[in-house]
Each structure stands twice: as structure tokens, then as C-alpha cells.
Amino acid sequence: MAATLQQFLARVATRQRAVLIGGLAVIAHGLSRPTKDGDAWLDPLGSADEWARVLIETLHEFDGLKLWSLAGRHPLTEGEIGAEAADSGVLRVCGLVADLDLFRKPNVFECEDFDAVWQRAAIWAEDVRVIDPLDLILTKDSTGRDQDMHDIHFLESKIRADLGGRLATATLAEAEAIFARYVDHVVCERALANPDAAVRERAKGLLAELAAEGDWFARDVLARESAGS
Question: What is the residue extent of each domain of the chain?
């Protein structure tokens, strides 16, 4: 019987850090939707050849698995894996219950970004982590695909609920850390309920910047705030 994606990733994660991305990550964050395959970002390590050697060690623990080139659509020999990882940044594992794409470098990130993405990620299964919603949005932005737009809408709603709730009681330092990663009219409006005047003023300033850039929603928030004060 073929191994599952989770079983394979759990084994990989005993050798190098693994972060779930793609459709499975969206599902892990709470959206019920179908997906035909999986995606994960593996610690890029020091070089593509080192990355390939560690991956090959895991492949040897499973029967019937093959690595494919997504660009060339052909199976890879062990000697070709390092060069393919360096050139395209992604390989496909075939022979699992569902195909699994393993990235050394996703399109929107650089190899050196992995540590920060790993630190922001949450535990998914065993030692495998699931990418933070904000980082996940970056991987889906500007693709033009309908499913990715739907995923982004869901993730933004989740982010707004989470960050907005935290901003309602955050210290100024905590609020600045949140605003450094995400700003829109919804989270800024939630910050206006914070008892700390400094947080409220910071939120008003950001709303004013958004309004000056043409954000009508931010203008409406400011107008309501001015009318209520």
C-alpha cells in the first residue's frame, strides 16, 4: 500500500525541517476544499547537492517512489536531482497516495527566507509545520488563478479575525509588530477599540495613510471615528 503525504513528510522532517504550503496548508488553516496533491518547502540547507542527498536518504526508506522534473516532465536519476533542485527549485515525488511537490525555493521566497518562515509556522503533524497564513498569501498572490483568489479571501478573513482581536488589547510595541506585517482598514478599526491612546493614534495614522492612497473603506472608518468622538 502506498505511503501518504503525511507519512513521507514526517520521515523527511527527521532529517531536515519541512513546512507545509499550498492547498493542504489552506485546508490545515480551516478551509474545507479539495486538493489533488501536496506541496512542502524543505530546508534548503547549504547547497542543492546537500538538499538532494538528504532527500534521497528518505526516498530509500520507501518502496516505489520516483522523483520527477516538473519542468521536463520526466523521472530523474539520483545524479540529476541536485542540478534539477538548483535549476527549478522544485521536484515532484510520485508513488505516494497523492503526488507531492517539494520545494527548495518557492517562487516568492529566497532560500535565506526559510528560517524566518519556519519560525512563524505552526505545528501541523509531528515535526512538520504549516506555513503562517500571511506567508501563505504571498505564495498565492498574483497567480491569477480562481482557487488562489478564493484561498486568499479565506486567509485574509482568518488573519483579520486573529490580528484584529489581538490589536484590541495589544501594547504599542505589540501593535507595531503586527502592523509591520499586515495593515488594512479592518485591523486598524479593531485597534481603535484599544484602551491605549498611543495604539489608537497609531491606527488612525495608518488609516489616514490608507485613505490618502485611495482606500474608501479607510476613509469611512475615519469618518465614523470622527463623528463618534
Answer: 5-131, 146-228
Distance CA 89, CA 70 (A): 10
Q: Mean pLDDT in runs of 10 for the chain (229 residues)?
A: 91 96 94 91 96 94 92 88 94 94 93 96 93 94 84 94 95 96 94 97 97 96 86
| DSSP result, 59-82 | HTTSSS-EEEETTTTEE--HHHHH
Q: Which CATH class is domain 5-131?
A: alpha beta
CA-nearest of 167, 176, 165, 113 to 139 is 113
Query: How many CB atoms lie under 10 A from the CB of residue 161?
Result: 13
Residues forming beta bridges with residue 129, ordered by sequence position: 19, 123
